[in-house]
Specification:
The chain is mainly beta. It has strands spanning 37-38, 55-60, 70-72, 75-82, 87-94, 100-108, 126-127, 131-138, 150-158, 163-172, 183-185, 188-193, 200-205, 211-216, 228-232, 235-242, 245-249, 256-261, 272-273, 277-282, 288-293, 298-299, 305-309, 320-322, 325-330, 334-338, 345-350, 360-362, 365-369, 374-379, 386-391, 401-403, 406-410, 414-418. The protein contains no helices and 34 strands.
């Protein structure tokens, strides 16, 4: 289920979307736009981790974690858990050299029980260019049993690793473990608290950590989706699946604006968006790909679902839109392509044994990274065209990041900078 490249909940700095070809940062979950897209040019398409081809540097990262790296300027941030010391850590790496600049301890807590495809540092950080925001799970239980009660912690740190604040947002309990990533909007930090208890979506003051609003969820069911921030008809919305529905919220107030009931119980993948629809891939115990039309209010279950199919078994990896096509990674190692206009299933192709990482795209190419560390690069086309297959030589459960024409992959032991410059 969730070798979650943090699967879930990450960060988006909602600012003017970049012009094609401009150098971009990757400031949170799924990049600048929160959807896995990059406007970068000359992104690497060939590498080999064993021979070192186009590996600019690789750096050992202390501890273990499935969070994705984020990049701002010359700094890279990522999290891990030192299971021996039972500490949760934030790391800063120099983007140019790969040097580990510092590691700071966020908290010490007994190790929570987790699903075999989850870890204890799965939430991807977010940065606004001044501070870095992280989330972890804390518990007093020493049993190590899955589902033991605990609480969600959110913290802010400056670029030297100094803690600015660390707060408890609310209770959290899940037999699958914890994974939430912060999303930044204006002066707020949004966090998803869907769990096996009194679930919530919350917003914190970015400077103080004070809870600004906290919206109860309808159902008490675990999910791990990162909200996607988009403006629709002049209204900014935080759109996410979870709590047995898909819904859009006002990020300033937490008010639920619209919702679609179902289509299943548990969700992990983030959603994507184009000029007409929000697109969902889910979930458990049943699998769905769905397009929800813009512009609805309140319950739009019967009125705004443009199409809905069940023939891609995607749960954890988030999809991506490229060249007006919807690409989906099936957890079981199969790539899918759909026509987003009508849901036509254009093709499917087996690429690897299993996918956890979410998809990324640049220059009309789609990157599918499998758990075994093999990345298949395909053209964003209506037929399956494989451009290149690259081996990292290390297993990968975190989602890739792109910044300044370079690709960053987090393996189980190292962070890799891949460059053709």
């Amino acid at each position: 289920m969730f070798r979650w490249s943090c699967l879930i909940f990450a960060t988006v700095l909602v600012s003017p979307f970049c012009v094609q070809g401009y150098a971009e940062d990757w400031p949170g979950w799924r990049g600048l736009r929160g959807d896995g897209t990059s406007a970068e040019l000359n992104v690497p398409t060939e590498w080999d981790g064993k021979s070192g081809k186009n590996i600019r540097w690789k750096t050992a990262i202390p501890g273990s974690g499935y969070s994705s790296p984020i990049i701002h300027g010359d700094r890279i941030f990522l999290t891990s858990c030192d299971e021996t010391e039972q500490t949760r850590l934030l790391h800063c790496v120099n983007r140019e050299s790969g040097e580990l600049l510092w590691t700071c301890e966020v908290l010490e807590s007994p190790l929570e029980g987790v699903h075999k495809l989850n870890g204890r540092a799965s939430g991807t950080p977010a940065t606004d260019g001044e501070w870095v925001f992280v989330t972890f799970f804390r518990t007093d239980s020493t049993s190590g049993e899955r589902g033991e009660p605990g609480e969600m912690l959110v913290g802010a740190f400056d670029y030297e690793g100094n803690q600015k604040w660390l707060v408890t947002v609310g209770a959290f309990s899940s037999i699958h473990g914890y994974c939430t990533s912060p999303v930044l909007y204006r002066d707020l930090v949004l966090v998803n608290g869907d769990h096996d208890g009194e679930s919530y979506l919350a917003a914190l003051d970015k400077k103080t950590g004070e809870v600004v609003w906290k919206t109860p969820r309808v159902h008490q069911t675990r999910s791990y989706v990162t909200p996607l921030l988009r403006e629709v008809d002049g209204q900014m919305q935080a759109v996410m699946a979870g709590s047995k529905c898909v819904a859009g919220f006002d990020p300033m107030t937490g008010k639920r604006l619209w919702w679609v009931e179902g289509p299943t119980e548990q969700f992990v993948a983030s959603m994507v968006h184009d000029s007409r629809h929000f697109y969902l891939t889910a979930g458990f115990p049943t699998y769905h790909v769905m397009a929800i039309r813009h512009g609805g209010q309140q319950d739009v279950t019967e009125s705004h679902v443009s199409w809905h199919v069940n023939d891609a078994k995607s749960y954890v990896p988030s999809p991506v839109l490229a060249n007006d096509l919807l690409f989906v990674a099936d957890d079981r190692g199969i790539a899918h392509c759909f026509d987003p206009a009508d849901g036509e299933h254009l093709w499917r192709e087996r690429l690897g044994p299993h996918f956890s990482a979410s998809l990324i795209t640049a220059e009309g190419l789609v990157y599918f990274t499998a758990d075994d560390g093999e990345t298949t690069i395909m053209r964003a086309a209506r037929e399956p065209i494989v451009l290149q297959v690259n081996e990292l030589g290390e297993r990968v459960y975190a989602s890739p990041a792109i910044s300044q024409g370079e690709l960053f992959l987090r393996g189980t032991d190292h962070l890799f900078c891949i460059s053709e410059k």
